[in-house]
Amino acid sequence: MENKEITIYDIAKALNISPSTVSRGLSNHPAINTKTKNKILKTAHDMGYQTNKFASNLRKKTTNTIGVIIPRLDSLFMSSVIAGIEKVANNAGYNLIISQSLESEKKEKNNALTMYNSRVDGLIVSLSNGTRDYSHFKKFIDKGIPLLFFDRIAEELPSTKVVIDNFRAGYTATQHLIEQGCKKIFHITNDMHRNVYRDRFEGYKKALIDYSIAFKEELFVINDMTESAIVNYIEDEIVKKQNVPDGIFLTSDSSAAVAITTLRHHGFSIPQDIAVVGFNNDIISKVTEPPITTINYPGVEMGETVARILLNHFTGNGNLNLTNTVVLNTDLIVRKSSLKS
Amino acid sequence: MENKEITIYDIAKALNISPSTVSRGLSNHPAINTKTKNKILKTAHDMGYQTNKFASNLRKKTTNTIGVIIPRLDSLFMSSVIAGIEKVANNAGYNLIISQSLESEKKEKNNALTMYNSRVDGLIVSLSNGTRDYSHFKKFIDKGIPLLFFDRIAEELPSTKVVIDNFRAGYTATQHLIEQGCKKIFHITNDMHRNVYRDRFEGYKKALIDYSIAFKEELFVINDMTESAIVNYIEDEIVKKQNVPDGIFLTSDSSAAVAITTLRHHGFSIPQDIAVVGFNNDIISKVTEPPITTINYPGVEMGETVARILLNHFTGNGNLNLTNTVVLNTDLIVRKSSLKS
DNA sequence: AAATAAATTGCAACCGATTGCAATATCAAA
DNA sequence: TTTGATATTGCAATCGGTTGCAATTTATTT
């Protein structure tokens, strides 16, 4: 019969020893004699034994599952982060439950509840743009379930965070535009509720100041960065009002791509009239005409890092409370969209 | 104490009834008196009861978990499919374990093993391009674990499949190019091991024949559709050898985007010299210059469909063996990359 | 009111692994 | 050879929900 599952009781019977010994042998308990252990391991393998995780979880009160909540899956960045987390987690015998908030606070709260009910051992989150309050994470904190953030973090919460230096990236991007001779640089970004956008904005502002370019509120544009929002802004503000910049720094490649497409459609040449810098080094940045100068984001590394911190916490190596924030490096990738010279 | 978990025993004690009754009341057993049931439900809610899934799984031998193995996450199509599956599955109280094969057979086999060991109740798969044999799915079939495929399917296996009509989509795309006046249409695609590419190719061929255009092997190009493979092909075969088509049908938008970028770089105008059609309606198709004519893929619908079939099987409505293949509709989305007139 | 049928509820075993503590085996020292 | 120390192994309870079957209630019929 293929049907019957093999249990430690079967192994015990086969070897004429007790199930406790089998259990301990299987989990490498130090009190077990090496010979006995090897016999157990061999028999288990021969009989095709698989641990029943539910019995084990029930008893140990742990699930070997890590929850991941992210805004969306459909970017190279996110899928790289997931690949990084998955690699580290699977090697350690953990499974992932992944869900998308689709930038909605409500869905994020829902997802968090599902994760809680599934009793994940740890939760890794990148916040949705819509999220304003963090009450849905309280349960986790109260119950001592490790909660870590990456990229879009909750600064108010006392959790471990893995981020890039958004300030510096914003500074570098802006500085690059200035060095290309831009004097009137627009910054199109999302609202300031998320650290990533706020810090990039601060970097942008600081670069302007350092190079003695006055920062004016009207240079700085906030919207939700959807395709239509970008198109509308460009057509209404730049084209119609003839309020034309010589450089634009946008905080995503897809919005930069939309911007370039729209601007060219209205007769502007990129980068001669307007230089453009995006963010993320997503695939899209390579295939627009011209290709987009952007900031490279270390996705896989970010995923591996956040997963490793969590796992170290589980195994008792490393303390979540000690590693509060990890900052990863980024690079500016220069392509034609910004090269005036 | 926030600490202590509430169990059915606590509820039983509070109401002075037996745990069995509580269990049955909670799971809507018909034998339980409605009044009793309501009391149980109310008390459970008031006390903040949460089912312990491990105890339940242990006893019921089901995990309420569905495994999903896909090639990659980073496309709009895949993230839509996942969103669709997730929506249906979560509503029914199921969790998802998602993993990426990254187009590698080895990783896919590995992922399948992990899913098996995690005892998923069902497995949903879209095959990697590298997959040649299907032995890693045997375990599931032998053990009666439902196995469903979507998009990139294993035709040899007797599983339920959800696909689009790739033949027709290929036909439509090609027909569109022909109607634009193209006479020499290249087809750049992946190798024929996956149904999606094979069927699109057959559609392409049929359209040529129907419109009395001779199909020649040299029109038809196979490679792995990576960025470099596309660039190399175009530079070596089209540009250097001056073997220039007047239309190209590629089976992904990202490769179409790369093709357009490369061709323009070499002085061709799109669509005047060469009309281009892609596949997938990924975001990238909208931001290239010119934007790409493509086939729209019903991602969310595909995900919902495959998940719903699986869930119906679990609940006993609908029989997996009866629904063998579901075919969803696609549309041709015409954009500038193909409009010669 | 007694007898029979139908509706509810409870008992107790079970799912399979884990673990504190007691029991036994092994080995070295006296 | 006896004793005490140490290394191994086993016993039995436990985690929390589920379910076949028996027991008890309640409703219906005569």
TrEMBL record, chains A, B:
Keywords: DNA-binding, Transcription, Transcription regulation. CDD domains: HTH_LacI, PBP1_LacI_sugar_binding-like. One of its GO terms (molecular function) is DNA binding. InterPro entries: HTH_LacI (IPR000843), LacI/GalR-like_sensor (IPR046335), Lambda_DNA-bd_dom_sf (IPR010982), Peripla_BP_I (IPR028082). Residues 6-60 form the HTH lacI-type domain. The keyword Disulfide bond does not apply. PROSITE patterns: HTH_LACI_2. This is LacI family DNA-binding transcriptional regulator. The lineage of its organism: Bacteria, Pseudomonadati, Bacteroidota, Sphingobacteriia, Sphingobacteriales.
